[in-house]
Please model this.
Amino acid sequence: MPGAETKALFARRVYAAMDEILQRPCEHQIIVTHGFALTFVVASWITMPIESVGYASFRGPSGSITTLREDDFFHNRQVVSLGDTRHLDSAKAG
Model:
């Protein structure tokens, strides 16, 4: 669409937001996003160069939970789960 934000600009905005979020002195944080932005949140988390993010796609179903973790010793970052929907199973049973 003419005048719409490009994918590259959107990715830069998400990367900047992640930089700000990660500066907060919190042990746990929750980020709520939609599926399109999830790719950029995860890419930023694993420090994928922004120039390469156009080749990545991390998808999660609606209502899913993605868990990201950084270890306390080496500060390695991992994607523990991507698009987990197990918590929705109990809602279906009710």
Summary: The mean pLDDT is 93. The chain has three helices and two strands. Residues 39 and 79 are 12 Å apart (CA to CA). The two ends are 43 Å apart (CA to CA).
